User: Fold this.
Amino acid sequence: MWYTSLTDQGSGCGGFSLGGPYRLTQPNNLGVASKGPHSIIAPGAALVSGTGEFDRLGAFAMTEKTCTKCGKTKPLTAFGHVAKAKNGYSSTCRVCNVASIRAWRLANPEKWAETKRIHYRANCERIAAQHRAYYLAHLEETKAKMNEWRARNQYKVAGTKHAYYQGHVEQALESVRKYRLAHPEQLKDQGNRRRARQRGAFVESICKAKVYQRDRGVCHICGKKVDPKHWDLDHLMPISKGGEHSYRNVAVAHPSCNRRRQNVGPAQLRLMG
Ligand SMILES: [Zn+2]
Ligand SMILES: [Zn+2]
Assistant:
């Protein structure tokens, strides 16, 4: 083959090459592709260290990089892309990044919880839909898993719960009271969902913020603005009368308007979701 004859001529140090499967340990300007560990001064005068490849025009393309944290040399795929970085890649490897994120979460549990809360609030509808879709797609699987686990651990679960309760009756009641005081909205939502479910009515997870946004904070009974911090999620057809716990069956209402309407009768079901 032609490159065999070039090798025979001692090519790679010579002045002529057509390119090919050459492996050199030093960078060269001969238009010969080479692979291997290099340390070179890049055009921007920044020192690039790592293993790379020189293309036929002598440009350096990095294929490996050394993590500044663990000191290990890894392929570029082990580093995240960072647009602002000198080489377009993070200086620390993905493994180290994950470890430091985990460490930060452990060291800042409150900040991490707040971050999660903000994310959940901004995406509550999408997350609930995801959970529901997963549950529906894995209905049998999930139920079977739960039943299996319960069957395997029923004495353990019951025993642990009972023993703890016996030893902490006061604390248990206190924590229930505290939870109820701290989560009035969740409690109402849970109760509504349970009651609707018990009556066989359609139930979906409702995000109050979305209802407020949809109704523009206007009470559906009197047509005036409600206090954003104090308003009722009114069921147009009451759950007690078989109404569903759904977006189309709820509306924003003043607590006072809501109470007044309860004596009059159900409003008309929303026609659009
Ligand atoms: Zn690392
Ligand atoms: Zn009102």
